[in-house]
Amino acid sequence: MDKLLGLLADGQFHSGEELGEHLGVSRAAVWKKLKAVEELGLALDSVRGKGYRLGSGIELLDSEKIQACVDADVRTKTDIHTCFTTESTNDLVRSQRPFPAGVTRFCLAEHQSRGRGRRGRVWNSPFGSTVSLSALWQNGEGTASLEGLSLAVGLAVVKALETLGARELKLKWPNDVLWQGKKLCGVLLEVHGDPTGECEVVIGIGINVRLSDEQLEAIGQPAVDLFRVCGKHVSRNTVAGQLINTLTHLLDGFGQGGFRLFREQWCEYDAFRGKEVTLMASTRSVTGRCMGVDNQGGLLLETASGIHVFNGGEVSLRQS
């Protein structure tokens, strides 16, 4: 399938005979593979006498192209793996071979069949339309040292997208990137290990790069993609490379000083700072004025009884 999509990626017509010769299979086998392409949700044009094409073409993830966008000082500290499809890049990154201390592993997939979001939600990742990336980061200071990490990761995403031309990006506590109130990116952290010693953090990031109107509507909440934000095509491989750059630098800094080093920058992008918001948990909701976050990434909420701190977890935030 990856070879077939590599041939169709240029958006030009290719005859069934030509595809069969390149793939070393019969015309009947080519037809079956083309049907599988459509099952991935890709729009396939078929014209008698011309052959088949992907109407808008597609840019496949390529580890070499991603590496070319990665800074020289970052390459020595990262291991990058791409794949065609997987259930979850968060699971995939943990299943890869062991790697030396000080190296952060990154896994990316064209498609996730069971991508995870916060609070048990499914993260939709249409084939070839998003950047679904997971990083495995080793930390020797225990889980308590990770407070505020999801907020810092969101900041790294914003910095990466700004280098590609995105503007007016905002951060929604604790882990969403917004544009004009619509979701562009989500972050999911999964922590494994000792609360006071060695642990590993899986950082899952999903960025909408170019989705159809129907795909955006299927997300189930106001959403947007990078194409609409920037007003132009943005290379998925370039997005991945820039994200690896900013995330690697951020993790280096976070390992030294925690979230307090990034608090002021995060507050500059806070979508709700100074606004009336409602924080909802499983058993209650609290309404108040958002006053930013503290040095541990806790939400500061001003209510009639004073300023209260709320930490992340199974909570959500919306403007009142």
Estimated helix fraction: 25-40%
Query: What is the CATH third-level topology name of the largest domain?
Result: BirA Bifunctional Protein, domain 2
Question: How many distinct beta strands?
Answer: 14
Order of helices and strands: HHHEEHHEHEEHEEEEHHHHEEEEE
Q: What's the quick description here?
A:
This protein has 320 residues and is an alpha+beta fold. 31% of the residues lie in helices and 29% in strands. It has 3 domains: 2-54, Winged helix-like DNA-binding domain superfamily/Winged helix DNA-binding domain (Arc Repressor Mutant, subunit A, Orthogonal Bundle); 63-266, BirA Bifunctional Protein, domain 2, CATH 3.30.930; 272-319, SH3 type barrels.
How does this model look, in words?
- This protein is of the alpha+beta class and about 325 residues long.
- The protein has 3 domains: about 1-55, Winged helix-like DNA-binding domain superfamily/Winged helix DNA-binding domain (Arc Repressor Mutant, subunit A, Orthogonal Bundle); about 65-265, BirA Bifunctional Protein, domain 2 (2-Layer Sandwich), CATH 3.30.930.10; about 270-320, SH3 type barrels (Roll), CATH 2.30.30.
- The chain contains 11 helices and 14 strands.
- It has helices at about 1-10, 15-25, 25-40, 65-70, 70-75, 90-95, 150-160, 215-220, 225-230, 235-255, 265-270, and strands spanning about 45, 50-55, 80-85, 105-110, 130-140, 170, 175-180, 180-195, 200-210, 275-280, 285-295, 300-305, 305-310, 315-320.
- Strands 3-4-5-9-8-7-6 form a 7-stranded mixed β-sheet, with helices on both faces. Strands 13-12-11-10-14 form a 5-stranded antiparallel β-sheet, with no helix packed on it.
- β8 (about 180-195) and β9 (about 200-210) form a beta hairpin.
- α2 (about 15-25) packs across α3 (about 25-40) and α7 (about 150-160) crosses α10 (about 235-255).
- It is globular, with a radius of gyration of 21 Å.
- It starts with a helix and ends with a strand.
- The model has no long low-confidence stretch (mean pLDDT about 90).
